Amino acid sequence: MGLLLVGCASAPAPHGKVAGDAFSMGEVLQSDSNRIATLAMRENINSLMRLMDKLYQRNPAEWRKTAATREAAIAHVRSALLERQMWPPLEGQRDVQALSKALSPEFTGDRVGAFTYAMGDMLLTSHGGKTSFTLVDSLDPQNVYNAARNVEIANWVLNHRKNAQGQPLLLSNHMSEQERNLSFEREMGKLIARLDLIASFGTERVRRSAIGFGQNLVAGPFLQFLPVR
Q1: According to the 3-state scheme, what is the secondary structure of the chain?
Q2: Are 110 and 98 within 8 A, CB to CB?
Q3: The predicted structure's pLDDT at residue 213
Q4: CA distance 187 to 173
Q5: Rounded Cα–Cα distance for residues 49 and 68 (Å)
Q6: What angle do CA 68, 70, 72 make, to 5 degrees?
Q7: For 12-50, what is each residue's pLDDT tens digit?
Q8: From residue 29, how far is each of 85, 132, 133, 205, 228 by CA, in Å?
Q9: Percent above pLDDT 70 for the chain
Q10: Is the predicted pLDDT of residue 224 greater than 80, yes or no?
């Protein structure tokens, strides 16, 4: 009985299962690279939303500048980002200019909302303003690569820059003798990794297309099924 209890105690906890999307007719207009870029962008937006929620929880004074509840503030920022609306506290700034303003010590608005919106707008700009891609779309790998570097810079600024009172602009990662909370760093790392993968894959798009055409041309005749009756 004791051995059984030990075995149960050491069983791994469930962490969910991977699940794919149901087929949609829109996928007919997507190449493999289009589909990968679409999935990566979707996950990057989801990562930003998780980061925003975590930052709002650690900095509750910020969401109160935007809405009556944390959930309402998150929905407000998400809607403005995906619908490409302006974020009023950023005074018309977009892309990296908006990111610089959101991370300036002098900024007095909802810094979490402004930071998330600016990060998302920068990502969308690097992807041609789109979240879904088809055969007629073309991503610039260098722009996506630059976006990854911008995320690294923004993460460093968030962790090191202080306001006029000498306090962090926002509370995020936390390390002490009693507790280590690096969930913000992990989410930022996922963003950077996805962007770097899409940038690297983008540089190989034309070359891989040519190789795939050659493989089909050469190997096609040898990969025909043979009659068995």
Answers
A1: CHHHHHHHHCCCCCCCCCCCCCCCHHHHHCCHHHHHHHHHHHHHHHHHHHHHHHHHHHCHHHHCCCCCCHHHHHHHHHHHHHCCCCCHHHCCCCHHHHHHHHCCCCCCCCHHHHHHHHHHHHHHHHCCCCCCCCCCCCCCHHHHHHHHHHHHHHHHHHHHCECCCCCECCCCCEECCCCEECHHHHHHHHHHHHHHHHHHHHHCHHHHHHHHHHHHHHHHHHHCCCCCC
A2: no
A3: 47
A4: 11
A5: 18
A6: 65
A7: 667 777 666 666 656 777 788 888 899 999 999 999 999
A8: 27, 11, 9, 16, 36
A9: 74
A10: no
| CA distance linking residue 193 with residue 191, whole number of Å | 6
Q: Which residue has the tokens 């407000």?
A: 76
pTM of the model: 0.80
- In tens, the pLDDT along 47-98 reads 999 999 999 999 999 999 999 999 999 999 999 999 999 999 999 999 999 9
Residue carrying the six token digits 């096609």: 220
What is d(CA 199, CA 137) in angstroms, rounded to the nearest whole number?
15
Residue type, position 10, single letter: S
